[in-house]
Amino acid sequence: RGVTVLHGGGTFSSALNDTWERNGTAWSQRAPATNPPARTNHALVFDPTRNVSVMYGGLDPGTSSYFGDTWEWNGTNWMQRFPPNSPPGRAFHAMIFDCVRNVTTVVAGRNSAGYLNEAWEWNGLTWTMRNPSSLPVARGYGAMAFDSSRGMGVLFGGYKDIQFTVHILLSDTWEWNGN
Known about the structure:
The chain is mainly beta. Strand 16 and strand 17 (152-162) form a beta hairpin. The chain has no helices and 18 strands. The chain has a four-stranded antiparallel β-sheet, with no helix packed on it.
C-alpha cells in the first residue's frame, strides 16, 4: 500500500491502541471503526499477497496477560480473525512475511510459562505449528528479517532466561526456509 503501519505500543505500565501510517514524508493518525485492544511487544508485518498488515500477540502491561489474537489492517479498518488454530499467546516474538511461500511466520517469544521455541505460520485462514528437526533455543526479543534473494527468514539473537532470574544474551543466527 506504500505506507508504513504502526499500531499500539506504550510503557511498562500502560499501552496504546492507536494506528498510524507514514507515507515516507509524514505520519497520519488513522481513525478505524474497530481497534484491537491496547498492547505492547506485539509484531506486525505486511502481507502483499492479500494486501493487509497482520498483527499477532502482545502484552497487556496493565494485567500482564499475553494476547494470542490475530488482527488484520486493510488501510481502513482492523478486522479480528478467528482461526481454528492459533499459537499460544505471547509477546517479544519475531515475525516475518515469507514472500516465497506467502505465509506469515512467528518464531519464539515469551508468555507466562517462559520463553518459547516454536515456529507457527499464518496463511490467512489458520495458524499451523511447524515441527522442523531443529529449532533455535527458546528466546524472546530476537530480530528476524526475510531474505528474498535466498527465500529464507533470518533470526538473530535475543534473550533466554534461567528460571526467570538470569537473562542470557544470545548472539546466534538461524535460518528458516519453511522446513
